[in-house]
């Protein structure tokens, strides 16, 4: 790597956990992405990419939303799809100590790209592994563990209140992806964890599939 013999460096996971002799076997596994840095909190000079492998056929993602929402027995399915899209924001902002902000924007300026629905919040953010898990079909937010925990880690089932307030919408870990491919052809998630300076981006696209 061209490192001088007197130069200090660290190897970390994408969650900025330093690889040591004690945790090597736990953190270093096949396919894991690692950073070679001068320090754990070093700014990344360039964007990095990480590949996510899917077991299901891509039709499971891009067509399941159509089947799910067209089975709504005469109801207008769009509000249900939008409700799924704000589920991550409900969870991410549930522990905010200050203002809890969730915005839904409809973008139609074709000079900025294709029309889109944007859901924006000021929540805790997701790490790269949590974004990875969001992309995996049928990985429930109640069963993701360890370094592969979801954005719902530490979740405690709330007292009975309207479901629109308690982040219980997407219980089985499929609703967000079904909603995305019911409304459009791709999903782009941008997130900065509250505990890190790194910004993570995930793109799921029917065209790429």
Automatic annotation (TrEMBL):
GO biological process terms, semicolon-separated: double-strand break repair
> InterPro entries attached here?
HATPase_C_sf (IPR036890), SMCHD1 (IPR038892)
Highest taxon of the source? Eukaryota
Q: Which Pfam family, just one, is annotated for this protein?
A: HATPase_c_3
Q: What is this protein called?
A: SMHD1 protein
* Source species: Mohoua ochrocephala
């Amino acid at each position: 790597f061209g490192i001088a013999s007197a130069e200090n460096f660290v190897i970390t996971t994408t969650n900025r956990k330093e690889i040591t002799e004690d945790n090597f076997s736990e953190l270093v596994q096949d396919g894991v992405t690692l950073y070679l840095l001068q320090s754990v909190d070093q700014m990344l000079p360039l964007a990095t990419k990480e590949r996510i492998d899917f077991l299901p056929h891509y039709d499971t993602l891009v067509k399941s939303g159509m089947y799910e929402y067209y089975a709504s027995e005469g109801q207008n399915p769009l509000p249900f799809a939008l409700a799924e899209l704000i589920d991550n924001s409900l969870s991410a902002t549930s522990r905010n100590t200050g203002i809890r902000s969730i915005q839904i924007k409809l973008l139609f300026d074709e000079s900025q790209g294709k029309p889109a629905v944007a859901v924006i919040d000021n929540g805790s953010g997701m790490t790269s592994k949590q974004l990875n898990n969001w992309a995996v079909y049928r990985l429930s937010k109640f069963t993701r563990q360890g370094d592969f925990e979801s954005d719902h880690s530490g979740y405690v089932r709330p007292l009975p209140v309207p479901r629109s307030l308690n982040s219980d919408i997407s219980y089985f870990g499929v609703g967000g992806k079904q909603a995305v491919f019911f409304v459009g052809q791709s999903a782009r998630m941008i997130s900065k964890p509250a505990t890190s300076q790194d910004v993570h981006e995930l793109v799921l696209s029917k065209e790429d599939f």
